[in-house]
Specification:
Chain lengths: 150, 161
């Protein structure tokens, strides 16, 4: 898992609407990168649903939240629609998991991401990171707020 | 709070089928429950309305809160406004007051306060129980509460909350 103090690797990925999104788009603002295993899985649905509930609160603290998995663009679109999610979901689809791997979130033996959170500061430096001990353990939204309040 | 026995603080989503199953299992146990609201609208679109309805019931009578939860969890297929009016009427609530209460800022803030407390405690899915300061996930709640107990007693009567 990428360590605090490290320069966050820049990336450009497509979001659910096929728009290109780069980490550098968030320069000057804090952004929480949410690496997760896969759209529509029960645990990921729980995780992103809870984050959706607190999205406004995260944004009111001057931060953005972005989801990243190895799913494709149209899968992301359907997943967002099903749950009414408003955060962008980025497709780390091809080359599969390359961006997630740069953050230490990809599990090549499994072919999908571990559940990991990375808070990138306004200057592009990693402020905080967290990897879930297991895929079924959801990092609570309290961890995000604790990180934002540090 | 309702009931007597092992204590649990229970974070629930009133639109959640897992919560309904747990609620059903708990109704057969000796347990002292403290219920807190944890509506997750993106999974259950009517959850905010259901929680507001439960609080609006509580505003008229403590016992009505529990009866409203029992009623909702007994039939998750009926969540629309007319169903809520029907539930409120059958509980003997003043419908006009129920309507204004459930849409009030005060009730919304009350539900939000519970939700925020759940977030702070690390709740990420429903139902989640806290027993002795320890989080217990959905699948284990009934088992934990029934440990060393027999599941023979009828549902406890409503007490203070």
């Amino acid at each position: 898992m990428i360590e605090p103090g490290t320069k966050a690797p820049d990336f450009t990925l497509r979001d659910q609407d096929l728009s290109k999104v780069s980490l550098s788009d968030y320069e000057g603002r804090r952004v929480v990168l949410v690496f997760y295993p896969g759209d529509f899985s029960p645990v990921c649905s729980d995780q992103l649903s809870v984050y959706q509930e607190v999205l406004g609160e995260i944004e009111s603290r001057g931060a953005s939240l972005v989801g990243i998995s190895v799913d494709g663009v149209f899968c992301h679109r359907a997943f967002r629609e099903q749950l009414g999610l408003e955060m962008p979901l980025l497709a780390d689809f091809h080359p599969k998991g390359k961006v997630s791997d740069a953050y230490g979130a990809y599990q090549p033996e499994k072919g999908f991401n571990n559940r990991s959170l990375v808070l990138v500061g306004p200057d592009g430096t990693v402020e905080w990171s967290h990897a879930a001990p297991s895929e079924t353990e959801i990092p609570g939204a309290n961890l995000i707020f604790d990180a934002l309040d540090r | 709070m309702r009931g007597e026995g092992s204590e649990a603080i229970l974070y629930v989503d009133l639109g959640c089928p897992h919560c309904a199953a747990t609620w059903h299992a708990l109704s057969r146990l000796d347990a002292r429950l403290c219920v807190r609201h944890f509506p997750i609208a993106s999974k259950h679109r009517r959850a905010p309305a259901l929680h507001a309805a439960a609080e609006a019931a509580a505003a008229q009578a403590e016992a009505a809160f529990w009866s409203m939860l029992d009623s909702i969890y007994a039939d998750l297929g009926r969540q629309d406004d007319p169903h809520l009016w029907q539930r409120a009427t059958s509980l003997g609530l003043d419908l006009e007051r129920f309507e204004s209460d459930r849409r009030s800022d005060r009730i919304a803030a009350r539900v939000r306060r519970d939700f925020a407390s759940g977030l702070r405690a690390g709740v990420v899915a429903t139902p989640t129980a806290f027993m002795g300061g320890r989080a217990v996930a959905a699948a284990n709640i009934a088992a934990e509460l029934s440990r060393d107990r027999r599941e023979t007693r009828p549902p406890p009567k409503a007490a203070g909350r």
